[in-house]
Task: structure prediction
Amino acid sequence: MPIAEMECRQIVVIGAGPAGAIAAALLKRQGHDVLIIERQQFPRFSIGESLLSHCLDFVEEAGMLDAVQAAGFQLKNGAAFAWGERYSEFDFGDTFSDGKPSTFQVQRAQFDKVLADDAERQGVEIRYQEEVTAVDFDAPQPVLRVRRMDSSEYSVQAQFVLDASGYGRVLPRLLDLEAPSDFPIRQAVFTHIEDRIDHPGFDRQKILITIHPDMRDVWFWSIPFSNGRTSIGVVASAERFKDKPQNLDACLQAFIDETPSLKNVLQNAVWDIPARTIGGYSANVKTLHGKGFALLGNAAEFLDPVFSSGVTIAMRSASMAAAILHRQLQGERVDWESEFATPLKRGVDTFRAYVEGWYDSSFQDVIFYPGSTPDIRRMISSILAGYAWDQRNPFVAEPKRRLRMLAEICASQTS
Ligand code: FAD
Result:
């Protein structure tokens, strides 16, 4: 890489989304020099609006809880599920793990800006509208090539690089770390509406996950915000879209028209923003770390949107990586595999087991099973609130076996 302009920094973070902002702030709070390179100008749209309680633990750790609480986001205290006449809700205030009882439903443009602004307030330097385009990890210290808006370029040398570039997946692409996801390709079509919901059973403090009446692998999210608007989206595999209109608004409406309970909730809504789509978002990598770098959040692995785990995993990875990197920079010997990758993946694999159970319907059966004991509901609620790393919870420690056992009980009681 030709070095025209070379700057030397201690830590460079690629991307100022939730993973990048939290990691950068945590490292800055430990006294390190941190530069974030962010491709876009904030505020910018991002998908992923329903937060889990556990992610606020990291917001708090990074000293950003006051800023987030002051932003006026919609309080969220749980998750509700609907399938035809069936309805089941889980309360984040009644969980197995001792976690936060509530969290928020956020417009990500605003939320991500609150986090990034707070990281700046704490002394992190963020360069917006600059893009990392190339990397050299063969040099004694990593060197990143950065392109500015006016197409001029410069290089930054860093002692360590944290890739928090989300769907940009900068290091996985440039270092050939991409690995296929275990999940089939699915697509989401979504928009924001002025919801005008006056349905008596609708709880604005919960995400509502509605299952299509005939196709149990097709589901909708409804995430109400504090300003009278709601994020609404449908998720389905590619083949489910084949007989739907090409136009995204018509496509989303067609799925909703087939789903009477949701159609009823949204009957007065004003559809004033064109729908968008994102597909093939599930992704994986061969490794989460290497010499001079670690991958955070979506730059590493993304499972599936159904349990709103993305931002929580992103922040958890940021918190873990920041703690290990701090120790490394202090001269301590650290083992990124056993201290970062393995424990992080343990919780991700817990979510994975429930995502698989969602799409093979076994977890849906458990969710709607009326005979679950309060203890079991508390353990499930903990996972839905994001506490997927709490090994004291039997449904975390042995997710597949527990889910299989419960699904068998549900099937035998309902057949
Ligand atoms: P991001 O938030 O994507 O941030 C990455 C940043 O890096 C961006 O700002 C980008 O501009 C920047 N960047 C990229 N490339 C470069 C580059 N070359 N140079 C510099 N900067 C760069 N999660 C939830 O928690 N709740 C939900 O309800 C939810 N719903 C979802 C619904 C769908 C349909 C999908 C697909 C995902 C959903 N997610 C949800 C997941 C969520 O979107 C992500 O997990 C989360 O945004 C990841 O955060 P991040 O910080 O890793 O990356």
